[in-house]
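Morning F.,

Quick status update on the modeling queue. The single chain you submitted on Monday has been processed. Sequence for confirmation:
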Amino acid sequence: MKKVLVLAISLTLFGGCAGRWTKKTCEETNFTQLGFQEGSSGQSSKVNSYNQSCFKNKVQIPMQDYKSGHQKGLASFCSASKGYTDGSKGNQMHNNCTSIDAYTSAHRKGLKTHCSTQKGVQDGFAMRSEVILCTSFSAYTVGYKKGRKEYCTSERGYEHGFTGKEKDSRCVVYSSYKTGYTKGQSYFCSPKNGIKLGEKGTAFPQKCEKAGAVFTRNYNKGRTIFLTKTIKNKESSITFERQNYERVRDELQDAQFELGRLPKYSTDPDVESNRSRIESNIATLRSRRDSQRQALEALENEIYEMKNEVNKLRRN
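Structure tokens below.
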């Protein structure tokens, strides 16, 4: 009877509902089996909660029986095989298994296989942060340093410098990377590349401020080419925007004229319907006109600023 009661309690009463204990439940539960069942599923001990609930029903539960069962159940849950499996997957130890020697010892062995030199190399090359669980294994840390070094090569530094990227702060401890970066940056800030950067519309790179007058002159030349092309494109756009603005303006004038032709004091439903329609159309047209005028003014300002910049660049 008590075996059945334990199963029923575990399925229906103990899902965080300790307040549903009755005096009969407290008296008839097999707490040794209940403790074992919960321990063998990795759960923490609930003996104090059960004791408090049953105390309200004036029943003193056999706490030692529960503790004994729970300890045995936990020992079966925290097996060596589980410890090894958790460790080999790189998982931390289960909170309720840290006092079980068989589990912790196997977990350490499993973790050692996970924290291999190869994983260290992979994490280091991918520039991930070191896995804290693995830092106590020399094989992993040696591999991690190797992976970092393999990533932070002279070629990588050259690539970063060549493309104008900032130095990778994680690689600045490697002289080969710094040497490559310096060489790459020398090309990036070269007179030849100055023209290319200007033609792309790239902002003047601060890192090239000391590159010399020739770089600056070439950059300005490329920038002038870029701005001239952009101005031409925007002037084509402004012609289109101006045509749209004028068309809407004319439609608005026509609608206002049509509204003015309606009798001012007519009570004819058809006249009032027309008045409402025309007034709504006028409001829409005014909104479109204002929006297009703003777009037109913005384009004109952009072109004006660009032409000023071109003139300054040519004077320099």
